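Re: the request from the purification team.
They wanted to know what the chain is likely to look like in 3D before they choose a buffer screen. I agreed to run a prediction and write the result into the notebook, where they can find it.
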Amino acid sequence: MSRNAVFSIVTAMVLFLAVHPASALEVGVAWVGKSGMANRVTAGFEQVIKAQAPDIHLEYRRELDTPEDLAAAVAAFQKEKQGMVILRSNGAKWLGQHPPAIPTFIGGCNNPVQLGALKNMEAPQGNITGVTYFLPVATQFETFRAILPNMNSLLLLYGEGNPSADIDRQQTRSVCENLGLTYEEKGVTAKDQAVAAMQQYAGKVSFAIIGSQAAVIDNAKAIVAAAGSTPVVSYSSKPVKDGALGGFVADDHRLGGMLAESVIDVLLKKKPIRSVPVKVDPNPTFYVNAGTAGKLGLEIPYEVLQAATVIE
């Protein structure tokens, strides 16, 4: 072998080791479909990984088209990586049906227990832990009732076919049973369906709720317009900017950082997954639209305003 050939091989090895040092941990990151939430979570995730665990090397499989593509990505990760991050509710649900063989971390998803990914968020069994944007509906209703003290009925608008929809439906129905509220629901997949559903119930329910699915979140402005004088609240914050009265949100960037901490705990600090609980945002933000409250003639209680982020 010539001297030049030897030099080229040595140079290539040096460059490879510079990018992938011997001590590096390989972690795959993947999700199915386009998702602003997944992008926000990964931004917070990367920030903490770079600051606290720069030897962790990340390989992304972003915005995969189908569950079959996710299956292929997971198969590759399980052969080549020490751990993997699978984002979104559809990913968590898929993992529940296909238990992973390596440490796996979920995020950007609704309640992972109800999605079937694991059985206990406090002491995860198997190879899955992570974070969730899930916030108990009963806790959110405490604020909704403070704003709408005379409520007696509601309409839940949710995105048909989304894995998180069943969680919204189950939790909302349960709260209504406990509070003695009349519960109505409509699943939609498009703007015209959402508008028609809201028009059908406008004036007939105390308020409407926009679920945590893109099919309704992205059409919030049209839903609010169709509601007229019927208040609309949300299980997320974006609809509030589009005219909904109020809504809670977990901080996706913060959850991404918490997700990174879980990865570090398991892969670097060697903690067993059962001792790394699934984390939730400890300080979710309630957004309230002051302009909408004024149009509806509602007075937001002072204690709610003190803790809320107000949108004019």
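For the purification team: Residues 3-19 form the longest helix (17 residues).
Please add any questions underneath this entry.
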